[in-house]
Each structure stands twice: as C-alpha cells, then as structure tokens.
Amino acid sequence: MIALFDLDGVIMDTESQYSIFWNMMGKEYLGLDDFGRIIKGQTLFQIFGGHFEGMAREQEEIVRRLNEYEMNMSYDYIPGADEFMRQLKASGVPMAIVTSSNEPKMKNVRKAHPELWELADAVLTSEHFTKSKPDPECFLKGMEVLGGKPSETYVFEDSLHGINAGRAAGAKVIGLATTNPRETISPLCDIVIDDFRGFSL
C-alpha cells in the first residue's frame, strides 16, 4: 500500500484562501465570476496556458501578486491530517505529497510545517510534471517514486480535477468534501470523508 496526498484542501486548509485570490484575478483580468472553481487543481502553467495566453504582462503581475499572497496565507492542517499521516508513517506506509503547487509556494509551507518533509517520503510539485490534473501523470509519477502499483495506491484528493486524475491513474480515490459538496464527489470516489478526524488505517 502507498498513499498519495494532494496538498491544498487535503492536508492544508487553504482552498478557501485560493478561491478568494483566483476569483479576484478572474474578475479583474478576465471579467469572469467564480474563476477559482474553474481552475481548481491546475498548475499555474496550466492556468496561464488556458486563460491568459499571450498576456505576458498580466501573467507577470499575477505571479508577483500570488507570491505575495502566499507569503501571508495561513497554512493550517485539515483536522486530523497530520495525525493520520503520523499513523501511516508509524505503520511503514510509503507516502508522497503530490501537488500542483510550485517550489516557491512550498517554501512557505515548509517554513510553517517542516515536519511534513519528515512524514512524507517524497514531495512532488508542479516542476516535476509536464501535464496538469486531470491528467494522471502526477499520480503515476508518485507511484513510480514510491515503487507502488495502481492497484495498491490510495489517492487523497478534494478537487474534481484531482479526483479524476487519481481515477485515471488506476488508484483508489478517497475524496475530501472540503472543496466540493459530498454529493458532487461521491460518485467519483471509493470513500468520501469530511476530514481525517476518526479516520484510521
């Protein structure tokens, strides 16, 4: 058995903060409402390629604003996430964090929670992938790094892009109803939980 964890909305309770930022960017630069939901689970490269093509100046501004925003974000655990990861670690279950976040953002996470790098056997960021979720590349890479097969892999995800990526990778998907309603993700997941409280190996 191996476990692959998305970060935002799964380990870290940050999705609502990102929704605020991206809704603001979507409204300001594109005139779109609810932009945060549209791009959830995608890398910055994917967001720019899909929505800001040919807008080099705007991309630079967004990167600068995002970096400033992430430096001031709070990085609180989804309830029970760290305890569950410690339980897996104690039981010898290989774990990786597989996130669409980039290295600069992860430096902020590491500053707030250095223990995550002791719990996880690998931390894979957007720099490790060429394709964004819902493409399964990131989770297949996680399996490769940890030496696991799809049939023995559990993916923990909250976004629809991430859940579909886990399914496409052939893993069992445990969905967290932290970002989308339970009834929305239930048909796509093997199990759905609200958080990790009371959830055990």
Describe the structure.
The protein has 201 residues and is α/β, with parallel strands linked by helices. It has two domains: 132 residues, HAD superfamily/HAD-like (Rossmann fold); 57 residues, no CATH class. Helix content is 46%, strand content 12%. It is built from ten helices and six strands, in the order E-H-H-H-H-H-E-H-H-E-H-E-H-E-H-E. A six-stranded parallel sheet has the order 3-2-1-4-5-6, sandwiched between helices. Strand 5, helix 10 and strand 6 form a beta-alpha-beta unit. The termini are close together. 41% of the residues are buried.
Gross morphology is globular
**Which CATH architecture of the largest domain?**
3-Layer(aba) Sandwich
Secondary structure: helix percent? 40-55%
Q: What class, by secondary structure content?
A: alpha/beta
